[in-house]
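Running this now, will post back.
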Amino acid sequence: MRKLALFLCLVMAGCAKEAAPPEPIRPVKALKIAPSSATAALTLAGEVRARFDAPLAFRVGGKIVERSVNLGDTVRRGQLLGKLEATDYQLAADAQAAAVAGARTEARLTEGELQRYQGLREKGFISAAELDRRQAAADGAREKLRGAEAALDQSRRQVGYATLTADNDGIVSALDFNAGQVVAAAQPVLRLARPGTREIEVGVPESALTLVKAASGFLVTLNAQPGHAYPGKLRELSAAADPASRTYAARISVTAPPDALALNMSATVQLLETGQPAIRLPMAALVSRDGVSRVWKLDQASATVKAAQVTTSGISGNEWLVSGGLNPGDIVVTAGANLLREGQKVRVQP
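Update: finished.
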């Protein structure tokens, strides 16, 4: 029995001293990095717009009886653009004119009575209280007349609002009304683009905001004018994204002849070189921990990886733009980085 116990103890001791299995070499993909331009790959599609382009609308609602312009027409300030049926507004103005006439008659009557009662008061035939009542009636009639005249002026303005005219010279760049259509007050019916400066309107994706803000300039090409390119600069960038497209509206001012840019012409905008090199890495190459971005550098001699902290300057497409922490020639793990640890051996797959 004693020999059996001794044998079991020896077996258990031998099992406890078995070496742990070697850690498997993890397969990864790696990339030898090189500098490239931070903006060379960004191209945006846009359209030619007028710098000053405002929607126009009737200030009252109603049925359209006349449309006097067509899309693309050049109009002058004060030119007729469209008319609403103004019968109801004219009837309201006529009724208010009658109210003014009645208020004016009442005011004259109370004013005459006030003058007579003032004479009677001077002779002592009426009391001061009675004169005060006549004075109040005359004052009320005058205020009533003033209010009726103001209402008449407003009614006449409503009649005038049934006619839409151009506030400035311009070109009809959009049109959305026809005779017989019923529109509401302040509903945009056309857009009037002022002559002069033309710009390119583009939608900037969220990933390219940093690049667009830092760009030294842009190169604008028009699909209708192959072989021609014009320099441009960022003039305006929206602070909020469009809820539908999730892009940020931007305006690029263009240095080009006035007749070269036709409204709504399609254009292509490219970012010019910034002169500041950036290293491009796939999105999976960066690992963020505790708010710090890191990559795994590969030591070819030992086939191990070492974490390196990096700084980024933005995103271009599906790539990070690394501005610090790496040098050209470094080998960085681009796939499987989130499963690695310091000093781990790896095997690079083709």
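Helices lie at 2-16, 87-122, 128-161, 209-214. More later if anyone needs it.
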